[in-house]
Amino acid sequence: MQLKRSACYLRIVTLIALFYGVVLPAGAWAQSVTRGPYLQRVTQNSIVLRWRTDVPSESVVSYGRDLSELTEFIKYPIRTIEHEVMLTHLTQDTKYYYSVGTSSQLLAGADRDHYFVTSPPIGASQNTRIWVLGDSGAADEDTVAVRDSYLNYPGQSETDFILMLGDNAYGSGTDTEYQTAVFDMYPMFLRNKVLWSTLGNHDGYSASSASQSGPYYDIFNFPRFGEAGGLASGTEAYYSFDYANIHFVCLDSYESNRSSSAGMATWLKHDLANTTQQWVIAYWHHPPYTRGGYDSDRDGRIVEMRQYILPILEGHGVDLVLSGHSHTYERSFLIDGHYGLSDSLTPSMIIDRGDGQGVYTKRGKGSHTGTVYVVAGTSGQVDDGELDHPVMRVSMAKLGSMVIDIQGNRLDAIFLDKNSSPADHFTIIKKTH
Length: 433
Prior knowledge:
alpha/beta, Purple Acid Phosphatase, chain A, domain 2, seven-stranded mixed β-sheet, 22 strands, Immunoglobulin-like, disordered N terminus, globular, 2 domains, 8 helices
């Protein structure tokens, strides 16, 4: 309603100015940024910057490698409150500072907190750090505690990007709820870390994967045309991207057809067959194995993802699967071939139980070499549950988030509780021969 009143006011003032022959400056009526800036869809040579203003204005981004010399700029003259600017012809693995505003106003940035880093060369073995948030949309004191635990975690400033596992904004994923649960909650990260996400059921209550509409799809920019590596999916509901030596696959477990012959599974087969990356990580909302807030033997979406999607992933050597939905933390053995109900697990399906230090050894990236499954849905709330699924090595009901570090053939993951203490940790070592 406030935006409608502001737009109406702008039209009235503009008409009065035209009547008296007064020429208004291009960005005269933009007073403040009400959302962002936030970063989307980074590649080796491009990135999308987005922000919202209180009233319509033109979009201007100034940027450069030196904070004192933001000499590059791009201008979109069409007035809007939803600003979306794509920067191209950037240098890979490079830090740029930026500002956003209009031709006459600096609205945000031009300081050390507003920057982005382009993606490294594909296949690079440099350290990559990922912060993983699951079901963080409550926007309450528990969410703040999880956020602040990561703010206090050593090296958090070196985070490369953030993954959200769905249910980012309770209760129905409306634009207002996203403002509170995401943009007002994580502004210190969003202005300099790219955010990737998958669709949760609460996000989906006000969004449609079929029509690519609703707040979730309006807010995010995902690579449906293969802009960030991987195979074009033609949709933002499921997509893939490459970063360093990792291939990421995002799936839609809520609304897209989950059958083995449907579009998502068909695309997935081709996408995985075409990647040569050393690591493959998949993520979606509904966990294929859980006995937390939900039971994976009973939920139809979960059963279908396990039955139809897991054979494709494991057949292409996917290393790690991340999900939320259950508000618990659960970490599996290194397993392969378990697509039925929980009581159908056999010892032969467990490839590596992990030693006392949580270390799994995996033989290369070939077909059916084992996958670790993690449920990390406690970044905003915790559920009770049996926490006794037979594939799980560790299960707990604690608030927290995940920190994943990958370098070369080693993946280290920590479940960080609300007190900045590692409540669980595990390592995957990939043998090359």
